[in-house]
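User: Structure tokens for both sequences below?

Assistant:
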Amino acid sequence: MTELLYEKKDGIAILTLNRPERKNALTPQMMVRLAEAWRDFRDDDAARVAILTGAGDTFTAGADLARLIPLLTRARQPEDDWTDACSRTRRCSRPRCCAGSSCSSP
């Protein structure tokens, strides 16, 4: 299953976190795919707005710590170039919004 769905239609980019069985918890790979999607959105002059949403009943539970902690502690090496994925998402100045039925919070 694809963990991030990305589609564009009529000037709208829709990014869907697609791990409903894990409350759409973000994996390092998802962060890389998100950064790639944001870059594509930023560079597409036809795309006017992006909507970030989550599959299932939860927008996102946040980071999937089981997958992230081993990378942060260097217990395992990354499979993708995820180290700067978070900073790359900030380089998009176009309108973005989130749409979810609920959000998890600490």
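Moving on to the next sequence.
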Amino acid sequence: MSPKHEQIAKLIQLAKIDGDLDHKEILLIYGIAHKHGVQKFQMDEIIRKSDSNTYPRSIDRDENIRFFYQSLILVTVDYKISEEEITFLEKIGKGLSLDPTRVKKAIAHVIENKETDLDETEIVALIQ
């Protein structure tokens, strides 16, 4: 799988952690996939491979930060963030070679503001 496909697979896995695959989570994942040029027929393979224990490969710093931001958005769609989701986000951050301290700050910020619209610029500043 390409790095982009791996990222989509991780979003699917992240969405499944709390047991409920919310309709809004599905729409967000498909929207992100479409934005990255993933075709509908490719989604079947990505969904099949979404349960693997690998984490997305680092692409480049800006893309890694963008993907981590998308992951943060995904966990807030249902207005609740579980401990399992937090742990998974930390693992994604590590897999993307992001600073663990900054990742934790971004997660804490998202938890604090989970019921508001998250400002991408603000989150990116916390991660960089």
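User: Anything stand out in the second?

Assistant: The radius of gyration is 13 Å.
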